[in-house]
């Protein structure tokens, strides 16, 4: 099977996944108690006004008509209007995407920079103090709740030591880079870095521990194979063997987990964004939940579902390039 057909197959499967997410969210909205019109105009509003709101938002239509209209709107990129603010949902989602992507990518970079070398060192020095230390770090990282870790980092590094800010970030990455390019001053970039370090560490800790364990186990499997003995017999340096040959063959499961976890980071940043007042999708989702703003909640969840699908397709493409045999499976 050619790579193109392989990716088309994955894309079609992703369409069904997104459709399932949309259907589940719409069903939850339909069966949830309360009249959405009351959320918009209030329970004490005039009945005639409430009826006008139902008609405006299509809430007076049969449920199957509402479902069909919602699917049609999603196909053309129209997710409706927020009950609370009256703004277009897609605009409210898109404006928060950069902040969430910044946080997820920063957490992923931190995880990769720490986890991969740590996993290699742990596997290369099996049953030595370095291996025990890496194992202990992994256990702590997997076991520590990120909301607790975030609060502890704020109390210790921000409140007690004053090394990092505790408030909402005043500038985004795009704004900081634009200012750097136009004025030559890196002040905005430094401010952005100070604000993102603690949230990125909090969000990426579990990810770091997971990749460390995965790298270690994969390296141990590869180090016991005959080709490693053959390369050692040729006199190649140990570092070259570990990082060029052994680590490369270990990267397939790591790339898979990286892609899946990036989607998890995007969807799972809700708690971290709330703790650090990070202006991303998670923070907006909590606001929508508190206000029972169903169109906004649906839009955010559907966007996260689409992100998962697209990331998985990219992972499949990378997987196929690393191991072409998966195309024929």
UniProtKB/TrEMBL annotation:
The keyword Membrane applies. Residues 97-319 form the ABC transmembrane type-1 domain. The chain crosses the membrane at residues 12-31, 103-124, 136-159, 196-215, 252-276, 296-315. GO terms for biological process: transmembrane transport. It is a multi-pass membrane protein. InterPro entries: BPD_transp_1_N, MetI-like, MetI-like_sf. Keywords: Cell membrane, Membrane, Transmembrane, Transmembrane helix, Transport. The keyword Metal-binding does not apply. It comes from the Archaea. It is found in: Cell membrane. One of its GO terms (cellular component) is plasma membrane. Coiled coil: none annotated. Belongs to the binding-protein-dependent transport system permease family. This is Binding-protein-dependent transport system inner membrane protein. The lineage of its organism: Archaea, Methanobacteriati, Methanobacteriota, Stenosarchaea group, Halobacteria.
């Amino acid at each position: 099977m050619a790579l193109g057909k392989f990716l088309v197959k994955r894309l079609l499967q992703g369409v069904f996944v997104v459709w399932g997410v949309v259907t589940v969210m719409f069903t939850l909205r339909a069966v949830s108690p309360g009249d959405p019109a009351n959320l918009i105009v209030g329970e004490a509003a005039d009945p005639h006004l409430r009826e006008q709101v139902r008609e405006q938002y299509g809430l007076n239509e049969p449920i199957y008509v509402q479902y069909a209209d919602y699917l049609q709107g999603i196909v053309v990129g129209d997710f409706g209007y927020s009950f609370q603010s009256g703004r277009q949902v897609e605009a409210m989602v898109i404006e928060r995407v950069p902040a969430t992507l910044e946080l997820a990518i920063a957490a992923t970079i931190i995880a990769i920079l720490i986890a991969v070398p740590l996993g290699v060192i742990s596997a290369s020095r099996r049953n030595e103090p370095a291996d025990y230390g890496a194992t202990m770090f992994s256990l702590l990282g997997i076991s520590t709740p990120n909301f607790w870790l975030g609060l502890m980092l704020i109390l210790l590094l921000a409140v007690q030591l004053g090394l990092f800010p505790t408030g909402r970030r005043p500038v985004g990455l795009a704004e900081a880079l634009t200012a750097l390019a136009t004025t030559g001053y890196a002040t905005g970039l430094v401010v952005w870095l100070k604000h993102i370090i603690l949230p990125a560490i909090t969000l990426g800790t579990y990810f770091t521990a997971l990749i460390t364990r995965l790298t270690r186990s994969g390296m141990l499997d590869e180090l016991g194979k005959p080709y490693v003995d053959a390369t050692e017999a040729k006199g190649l340096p140990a570092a070259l063997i570990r990082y060029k040959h052994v680590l490369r063959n270990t990267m397939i499961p790591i790339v898979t987990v990286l892609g899946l976890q990036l989607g998890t980071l995007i969807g799972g940043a809700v708690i971290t964004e709330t703790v650090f007042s990070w202006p991303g999708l998670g923070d907006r989702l909590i606001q929508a939940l508190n206000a029972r703003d169903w169109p906004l909640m649906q839009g955010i969840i559907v966007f996260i579902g689409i992100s998962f699908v697209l990331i998985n397709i990219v992972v499949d493409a990378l997987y196929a390039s690393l191991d072409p045999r998966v195309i024929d499976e």
